[in-house]
Specification:
A 4-stranded antiparallel β-sheet has the order 2-3-6-9, with no helix packed on it. A 3-stranded mixed β-sheet has the order 1-4-5, with no helix packed on it. A 3-stranded antiparallel β-sheet has the order 7-8-10. The longest helix is centred in the last third of the chain and has 5 residues. It is about 5% helix and about 30% strand. It has a single domain, classed as Archaeosine Trna-guanine Transglycosylase, Chain: A, domain 4, CATH 2.30.130.110. It is built from 1 helix and 10 strands. The protein is mainly β and about 120 residues long.
Length: about 120
């Protein structure tokens, strides 16, 4: 994140090193989480790779997350339910690391995962 002159009292605009956690963007302002049990949040703006805060703690986004897509906020083991808006939306088809995209490449609907492959 590069700060503009004067933003956050920044006197050295353009520098990103050594800014400290007070300058990390809070994921709560960039994503939606409606349920306390949710294992993913939904981006409402582009999320770039980097450090953010989530619930007051440092959080690393490991890959770009487009608006409308899901971001894992905790590790989700293969075969475990993925929860969004307090409702299980699918099953992880592989281990999903915190800070990564959750989408069709690592998530199957609960109904699809119940079907037998012929």
């Amino acid at each position: 994140m590069v700060l503009r002159p004067g933003k956050y009292g920044n006197k050295e605009a353009g520098k990103t090193e050594g800014l400290g956690r007070q300058y990390m963007r809070a994921l709560e302002t960039l994503c939606v989480r409606l349920g306390e049990k949710d294992t993913v949040i939904t981006a409402v703006k582009n999320l770039q790779v980097g450090e953010y805060t989530f619930r007051g703690k440092a959080f690393v986004v490991r890959e770009r997350i487009p608006p409308g897509f899901k971001l894992a906020i905790e590790d989700i083991a293969e075969g475990k339910k993925v929860v969004k808006y307090s409702y299980p939306i699918g099953i992880a088809t592989q281990d999903i690391q915190t800070g990564t995209l959750v989408h069709v490449h690592n998530l199957a609907s609960i109904e699809t995962s119940k079907r037998k492959v012929v």
